Amino acid sequence: MSKEIIIAYSATSISIFGRLIFMSLLYSRKSTNIYSLIFCVINMVSSSLWITYSQLVPDTPLLVRGCSDVVLFTISATYISYNRYIENKPALKRVEESDIQL
Known about the structure:
Blueprint: H1 3-29, H2 34-56, H3 60-88
Helix pairs in contact: 1-3, 2-3
């Protein structure tokens, strides 16, 4: 195996590991931070461009990194959006018997 391939897959592994740390922090803090959501969306667009580039210049490690980033950032963005929805969801008014007029 060549040194270039080892370096490329090592960089890909480190990148994916970093994304997993980001996701664990989001999960442990139940993040609803709009900046984290914007960060995820921008990185999804960037990763999509890297996927396109990795197809133009046949580069499998870059393709793996781009695809894994898109998947992980999509999961993170969905999680943040869900938490924002739950946090901002208007509470349903409880109807009590005394409120009902017949």
